[in-house]
Amino acid sequence: MEQLLQHLRNLGFTELESKVMVCLAQQSTQSGYEVAKRLGVSRSNVYATLQRLLTRGVVQLTPGEPARYSMLPVKELTRMIAGQIDASLSYLEQAMPSSREESPSFHIVEGERNVIELINRELDKAGEEIVAGIWREEAAWFRQKLENAEQRGVRVLWSFEGLEEDGHPGIRLLKGGISGRKFWMVIDRHWCIVGMRGDGIPAQALVTEHPLMAELLLQHFSQEIILYEMENDLGQELIRRYGQGYTRILDRYLPGIIPAD
């Protein structure tokens, strides 16, 4: 019941309007007095609510003594609401003023649900290319959306962060590392998201369309590809010359950087 009421609220109905609608749907026709009694709400509030619902066209009135009310058939109701929403969204796209910023902005998205919903919306809009770096634990969030994108012709390139197939971790660039799992994504070479989450750590992400961020992430991905190919071809030779995890190179430029344990 609560889930149904929540969806009605999401569609713009008030708490009492939602309860009255559900109450009317549970029985063919009822008077305002009967609805008020079943809900335990004052008759004046119920009659005012019924009047608003009549005005919106979601409730039908049968005149009489007393007058009786009934819900619009559910299929007719959903078609009507869908039409109203489509019309409002169409008008919004055309009429809403859009501020022109001199440079792309950055903003933060917090909470796992908000991050997942945002990325899924952007994946649905991807037209040409998706490039991503993600841990296996988070890959389940987007696997279906990525598969759907591939099926409609979008090129999808992604790498797994963290442990590799053989169990060896990547290089940790700071002693102690960062607690949590990072993820990033570039869609159509302009929309970017960089974030992290982990056990006990709420998901948080930075979102931008700044071209510099897209360039940095794509360069990072290209470097990973180059290293992957080189390590496959020259693995032992690279270890002999540069040390495990390239420590000899790292110590030369940034002493103290060590491979992950």
UniProtKB/TrEMBL annotation:
<protein>
    <submittedName>
        <fullName>Sugar-specific transcriptional regulator TrmB</fullName>
    </submittedName>
</protein>
<feature type="domain" description="Transcription regulator TrmB N-terminal">
    <location>
        <begin position="8"/>
        <end position="74"/>
    </location>
</feature>
<dbReference type="Pfam" id="PF01978">
    <property type="entry name" value="TrmB"/>
</dbReference>
<dbReference type="InterPro" id="IPR036390">
    <property type="entry name" value="WH_DNA-bd_sf"/>
</dbReference>
<dbReference type="InterPro" id="IPR051797">
    <property type="entry name" value="TrmB-like"/>
</dbReference>
<dbReference type="InterPro" id="IPR036388">
    <property type="entry name" value="WH-like_DNA-bd_sf"/>
</dbReference>
<dbReference type="InterPro" id="IPR002831">
    <property type="entry name" value="Tscrpt_reg_TrmB_N"/>
</dbReference>
